[in-house]
Amino acid sequence: MRYCFYFLISVFSVFAQTPVKRHIIVGINNNFPPYEFVDRNGIPTGYDVELIQAVAEIANIEIEIRAGAWNDVRSAVEQGKYNALAGMLYSQERSEKVFFSTPHLIINYSIFAHSNVQDITSVESLRNKTVLVERGSLMHDYLQSLQYTDSLILVESEPQALQRLATEKYDCALVPHVQGLLLIQKNKYPNITPVVQNIFSTKLCFAVSRQDTSLLALLNDGLAVVKKTGKYNEIYEKWFNETAPHITFVIVMKYILVVVVPLLLLLFLIVVWNRLLKHKVQLQTKALAQSEERYRVFFEQANDGIFVLNKEGNFLDVNPCFCSSLGYSREELLKCSIASLFPPEELKKNSIQSDKVLRGENVMTQCSVVKKDGSLIDVELNMKLQSDGDIHGIARDITFRRRMEQDRISYSLKLQGIMESTQDIVFALDTTMHYTAFNENHFKAMKAIYGIDIEIGKNIIEYMKVNGDDGTAYSDILRALHGEQYSIEQAYGNEKLYRTYFEASYNPIRESDGTITGVAVFVRDVSERRQNEERLKEAKKIEETFLQLGRQLSSAITPFDAAKVIVEAADALIGFDVCVVELHLPDEDQMLVLLQMDIINGTRTQLVSDRMKWNVTARIRRTMNGNGELILRTPTSIIEKDFKPFGDTARRSASLIFIPIRRLGKSIGVLSIQSYTYNAYTKDHLTTLQALADHCSGALERIRTEAELQENQRMLSVLIGNLPGMVYRTLNDGKGTIQFVSDGCFELTGYTAKELIGTSAYTITLPEDVPLVRDVVRNAIPSQQALQLSYRLRKKDGSIRWVSEYGNFVYGTDHSVIAIEGFLIDTTDRKESEERYKELFEESRDGIFISTPEGNYVDVNPAFITMMGYASKEEVLKLDIARDVYCNEDDRKKFVSMINRQGFVENFALRVKKKNGDLISIETTATLVRSNDGSVVAIRGIMRDVTERIQLQQQLVNAQKLEGLGTLAGGIAHEFNNLLAMVLGNAEIIKQKNPENASTNKYLSHIIEATHRGASIAKQLLLFSRPHEISFKAMSLVDVIGEVHEMLHYLLPKSITVNISLGVDDGIIMGDAEHVQQIIVNLAVNAKDAMGEVGTMSIAVNNVSRELMQTKFPASGAKPYLCISVSDSGTGIDEKIRQRIFEPFFTTKELGKGTGLGLSIVHGIVQSHQGFIDVQSEIGKGTTFYIYFPLITTTVDVQEKTNIKKYTHATILFVDDEKMLREMMVEILEEAGHTVFPAVDGYDALETYTKHKDKITLVISDLGMPKMGGKQLFNKLYDIDNNVKVIVASGYLEATTKSDMLTMGVKDVIAKPYRAQTVLNTIERVLNG
Q1: pLDDT at 102
Q2: Closest Cα partner for 1127 from 1168, 1072, 1082, 1184?
Q3: How far is CA 523 from CA 498, 516, 533, 1138, in A?
Q4: Distance between CA atoms of 653 and 649, rounded to whole angstroms?
Q5: Cα(1056)–Cα(1034) distance, integer angstroms
Q6: Most exposed among 40, 498, 575, 728, judged by the fewest C-beta atoms under 10 Å?
């Protein structure tokens, strides 16, 4: 066993010499078998796990494996929390987040589904299928790129995908082909198979955090070694070549043995148990002996010295190597202690180490020992106290290593001296890209461009994580580590500090056997050389651009053309995103923008045309007064206050140059360029742009001057041409000889300029006005005042026009007037307009006024005087508006405040006082009149009397209220008629069943009569509250008067006496009874209002002769008429009012007490009946209305036939939501011999009709029911059978309800409350056609 320990100590000594292992964290998917997963004992395992463990052992890396959900471990590596992933499928998108190693396996994905699936044949066929896929997996990314997102079912692992496919109703799952087969085999999923194989292939790699670039090289190198040694094939065979038949056979045999021969097995175990134990002991004894022999051989043949000490430090055993290294024999050493081998200077240090060993610590130390010949050698001791009390140790001779180390240090010092003596940058790296050497120049350069202090042993890539420099350097160094020797120019450095170009020469460092152990890099700063090259190139470019610029400017015509040439040159020399060329206008102190460009939506766009102006900003003024300015902003820079934004204002310009355009030392404009890129411009660019501006300034100034002269001439010509009238110059020679006239002379005079020049101005002046013109000119000369006068001239065609002349005198050197210059404008239209305004003012129906700001009228028109009730304008002009016109002091204050604040008021509503004290409502619109200096001189406005309009509006509101009341009344009447129908029907049933009971029938007759009266009241309520459909038929006026007489008991107070006089027996006319009733009711209501609480009203019906009608109403024809007269003892109607009483909305009642529609409705009804109406009234005595209707000779049967007969049998569907009414009618109909199906509503009726439509011959339905009304029910029944016969009943019929229903196909419409006989007769009539 001691030799076993010697072997372990030897192994430990080997590892003790190796470098310290690097510790990394590796993430794995906890459920991705067989590649990586956690087994039942919680231990990470799988192909990926064993492979990275083997690579880590080769690369001397200590790994800590952490398992988790795939998305979690993936995110941990991307964020730098883990160093690597044991396995990750490669994709271009993923490579932007992590580094991928050399691939070590190809993985194919397949579509797994139930074996009977036929319609999944490709990836394309997966659309609209439910597809199970692992969340965040490469397959998930792949399907999203194909926009297969709606049907994806995301799961946490691919085993879960197959498990859900086997147990739930999904179409398919996408998993790796090999993994799927193994999972199906292991879990015995029935009928699951790969229906489409190898739909997608990718590479499986190690993945490394982008923050740990040095690790990638270690893993790649380790992987290569693992593949060369055959370890890779061993791992692969273990995880992918174990076949299912072995597993199945073992399982089957296990169950067979357990079930078939359990007793035989037990017997066999008992028999052979002793033999097995005996054999095992023999084997173990033999193995132990062999092991002892192997370790003894190792102990004897080890290249390091191995020894065993007791606690006192005496040797108990030593191997040959230990003896030979010291020159002693084994026997000599066994008589010595280890302390005797140390020189005196080592004893103290080694005594301390001995104490540590005795305390149980594992001690490794280096020291010198004395050989037998007295010489010293350097050794490395490794000692540890064992459990049996002995001390085991290993001694390695390191004399040669120390000498080599000293030589290396000496060599390094010499090498460092050489490195420091060169002006270049020199550094060396090992294979993991860690520094092994660098000179001072490299240290300073890294400090300058990255701001860091580098150290030996640190990874160079970690220092360069800006601007993508780490990736560039990694690629360049990796080429050298692969054996390539080359040179390259690259830019390195942090832009915020200093970034420049370097020329680097990469040289692999090789051992004698050719093994690459590092890279030597020689670097030279070539920025100055490149800058010189760029300057030379730029100078040549500027020279060529300026030559071309001169030719282009010479052909430019306008400043805008020149600006385009300058902008193109600036773009060729420097480049820009934004550019502005602007000239200074000294007279206006503004900048004229010639050209402005910006990048809009990726396209360079001209933002404005020429001639745009803006104010001079502080920055522009500073540029013009000084030199050019270079502005380099940072992302956090605050935009300067004097910066004028334009174009794409959402983007910030990062680099800006402002240059003055100077001519002869004076700034005439500014050229500015801008870029959205940071640090895009330098001072050299500033100098170049200034040279461009100076070069172009002369041409630009010349072009501008010429353009301004042309523009001034053009503007003068346009101004003169566009002036209304004619510009002129005449001599002061007494004749007014014309020297110049503008082209407007032709329109003004009819003469051309050629015809007028040289003639006298007085030849076209109307002769009567010539003296006036001469006097005005003569009187104006001494005072040196400008001319301003109006007169008439005669055109060439003889027509006369009014003109206004405005002129100034032109003086000679002797200060005498030599000419007159000015213009004439045609004012004929203005003169005519003034006349029209005067006419409008006088004839307007609205009141027009002009008042002072203080509140006195200056002028008013006749309509204003009449509106206010005054006799003359003089009376109105004396009024104080606030005191004599306004009723409310607050209205006056509000008016004054609004017009002073706004300058006008519009439709200002108020009430004012007339002369007689009456109040009227008006609306006024007025504006302030201001003088030339802006002061208010008057208020001008219009007043309109809106008293009548306001009354009409109120009447309209009342009419709308009445309409709402009518709707309410209709609903009440409907319910009331339903109740009356039930009362009436039940009373008739009782009376019919007890015909002999006289006393009972007496009371039943009272009930029936009261019901008829109630129905009449409901009918009159509906008549009063809403219009109804006009139905003309023969009717008795006597009956109508009788019904109205009953109604008047409810409408009129009992203190008003109603007298009825009937001069005819029937009085038959063709008309609508309800409309005729409405005529009498409306007249009665008006009579009540005229009489008050006490009075007498008389209603009479009489015949009228043909002769009287023809005399009174010639249009009546030779026909007899009946006359209804309605008289009252009221106050009477004034004649003026009587002429308007039939106008709609006209009323004399107080506001809110009438609609003004009553008599208008009466007049309309009379006309619809081909009748006439007349009114006679006397103030204080009363009023009588006469209504004339054409008489017809016929009789009217107003009662239902009451004979009882047996009806033909019918099967009737009766529908009504009122239960009592429904039950009553069922009884009545069945009593009459009919078969009845009752229904409570439309839906119930529809269901009943559908079941019994072959039996049902007639349907009687209420019109207004919940859920489904009678109209909707009819439509549904008609859809089933278009020959269906339907009778509709209702307690409330709208104006057109009956005609509408009959048009639809309903056979008849009856009103509630109805008598039983009415219903039976209607049924008979409908059934018999």
Answers
A1: 83
A2: 1184
A3: 17, 20, 19, 119
A4: 9
A5: 32
A6: 40
E runs forming strands in 135-262: 152-155, 172-176, 192-209
CB atoms closer than 10 angstroms to residue 150? 7
* DSSP string across 876-909: HHT-BIIIIIBS-HHHHHHHHHHHHHHSEEEEEE
DSSP string, 56-104: HHHTTEEEEEEEE-HHHHHHHHHTTSSSEEEEEE--HHHHTTEEE----
Tell me the mean pLDDT in the region 97-105: 87
Instruction: Judge whether residue 251 has pLDDT over 80.
Output: no
Task: Please list, in sequence order, all residues whose beta carbon lies within 8 angstroms of the beta carbon of residue 1286, skipping any fewer than 6 positions away.
Answer: 1258, 1259, 1260, 1261, 1274, 1277, 1305, 1306, 1307
Residue 571: pLDDT above 80?
yes
Query: Of 894, 892, 900, 893, which is closest to residue 929 (Cα–Cα)?
Result: 900
Summarize pLDDT for 977-1020 with one digit per residue, the tens.
677 767 776 777 776 777 777 667 666 666 765 666 566 556 65
Q: Across-strand partners of 658?
A: 629, 672
Where residue 176 falls among pLDDT bands split at 50, 70, 90?
very high
How far is Cα 656 from Cα 649, in angstroms, rounded to an integer? 15
Beta-carbon count within 10 A of 920 CB: 18
**Contact, 699 vs 705, CB < 8 A?**
no
Over residues 890-910, the mean pLDDT reads 91
Q: Does residue 751 contact residue 799 with C-beta atoms inside 8 Å?
A: no
CA angle 1241, 1242, 1244 (to 5 degrees): 70
Contact 796, 815 (CB under 8 A): no
Tokens of 835: 């006349």
Indicate the SS3 state at residue 639: coil
Give ∠ CA 935-941-944 in degrees, rounded to 5. Answer: 165
Q: Are 903 and 875 in contact (CB under 8 A)?
A: no
Eight-state DSSP code of residue 961:
H
Query: What is the rounded distance in angstroms from the CA atom of residue 1117 to the CA atom of residue 969?
Result: 41
> Which range has the worst mean pLDDT, 479-493, 581-595, 976-990?
976-990
CB 1309 within 8 A of CB 1287: yes
Strands 936-945 and 1235-1239: unpaired
Contact 77, 36 (CB under 8 A): no
Distance CA 10, CA 808 (A): 125
d(C-alpha 906, C-alpha 1300), whole Å? 49
Phi, psi angle pair for 163, to nearest 5°? -65, -45
Alpha-carbon Rg for the chain, nearest whole angstrom, is: 60
pLDDT at 620: 87
3-state class (DSSP) for residue 397: strand
- Predicted TM-score of the model (pTM): 0.30
For residue 489, is it left (φ>0), alpha (ψ between -120 and 50) or beta?
beta
> Which pLDDT does position 923 carry in this prediction?
92
CB 740 within 8 A of CB 729: yes
Does residue 1106 contact residue 1074 with C-beta atoms inside 8 Å? Answer: no
Least confident of 494-508, 672-686, 1043-1057: 1043-1057
Summarize pLDDT for 261-272 with one digit per residue, the tens.
Answer: 555 555 555 555
d(CA 235, CA 227): 10
Model pLDDT for residues 1241-1290, shown as the tens digit of each residue: 989 999 999 999 889 999 999 888 888 888 898 899 989 888 899 999 88
Q: In this predicted model, what pLDDT tens digit does every residue of 1126-1159 receive, in sequence order?
A: 999 988 888 877 777 877 666 776 655 555 667 8
Q: Are 1172 and 1166 in contact (CB under 8 A)?
A: yes
Token pair of 678, please?
A: 């940071």
Tell me, what's the pLDDT at 1010? 62
